[in-house]
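Researcher: Next entry in the queue.
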Amino acid sequence: MPSASPSSSPSSSSASSTSSSSTTADLPIQEATLELIRWFIPILHRLPRLHRHGLGDRLVANLYELLEQLALARFQRERLAILEPLRGRIQLIQLQTRLLHDFQLIDLRRYEHASRLITAIGRQHSAWLSQQRRPA
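Model: Structure for this entry, 136 residues:
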């Protein structure tokens, strides 16, 4: 997990960091989603072919869709239209992760780690959503 250290302190590697890490530094939910993707992708690429091209591909697609929608919401005036459907996307990611464990494709330790990351994203999403619902 050497890639996690640059995201935890963006200023320490600002000279060599990519534009994606510098543009998302102030949005913790995007950083958490990036961390989840960086952690999950290598695991999903090692799945048996049957699951890699089914469940694995769907999980990857949902992770990237979540990241894309979060990035888009950041720059929209009316964020609720983008943020509200993401609750379902986060739930799908959690369910697909549970299936990985149920099919014994990831061990309990990895399942628990992924669940903690997904739960953190869900909490940040809920907080952002309630902030957007507050009257201005």
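Model: Residues 27-133 form a domain with the de novo design (two linked rop proteins) fold (CATH 1.20.1440.60).
Researcher: Noted, moving on.
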